[in-house]
Amino acid sequence: MSLDRRDFLKTTTAAAAAWAAGDLLSATETPTSAGGNRELVQLLIDSDRARLPELLVARIRTGLPYPTLLGALAEAAAREVQPYPVVGFKYHAFMVLQAIHRASVLGQPEDRWLPILWAADAFKGSQADERATSGWTLQPAPECLSPPASQAESAFVEAMDGWEPEAADAALVSLIGTLPRERLFEHLFAYGARDFRAIGHKAITVANCHRLLPLVPADHAEPLLRSVVLALQNHRGEPNPASADLAPDRPWRRNRVLSAQAQAPARTTGAAAGEAVPEMVQAL
What we know:
The chain is mostly helical. About 60% of the residues lie in helices and about 0% in strands. α3 packs antiparallel against α7 (about 115-135) and α6 crosses α11 (about 200-210). The radius of gyration is 21 Å and the shape is globular.
């Protein structure tokens, strides 16, 4: 009698989850290890889809840390699945990983390894789709476009405003490790809300990456952030939005005018601030 995929995963992970649940929960804190696992990333990329769950279970049972697997899976997805032609569909292999993490932490003890094993299988499906349609992989950022460190932030903003993905990619690589992460995300959150192409998936991608990065070893950050920046530059073959008046960009431009005109409200505390929440929800 054959098992379907879910039954197989539940059967093979039950033993691992039974002893490792406590380790998984404690491992969800900010990782202190400086290094990720290059070999594990390559295993995820190169392994046959049918065999991958079994290979990962064997490693989990010999002590593979949860953050290491989560980070390696995020990097593999960032390197093998592009956010084109749309930010969605196959790209969910990257986008869902924060939700996968939440499912792992909040699930029943016997199921806590199941979500990330499902995500590894979903990644292999998206990777196969990418290989069949484009053969794309994340290449090194073009060094010829890399700005000096002192100019990297302004170069990044200029490239993002100009919808120039290669220049934005090169500037981002120069920024990583020098610009505080929260300052970088001030830019990324703004660009995530810049247009409503892909029905909001750009903003979702930024938010999920922001929540995911503290959970994984630091050396996975560069490919994850580069993938997000590529997603934010997606405009599906239209004219360059920087020099065209396209419908998806008009609300952003109008809202920038309105936000510049708005005055900061008086700071409130206590009951008044709490009362404002349902009022805002009702207005929306």
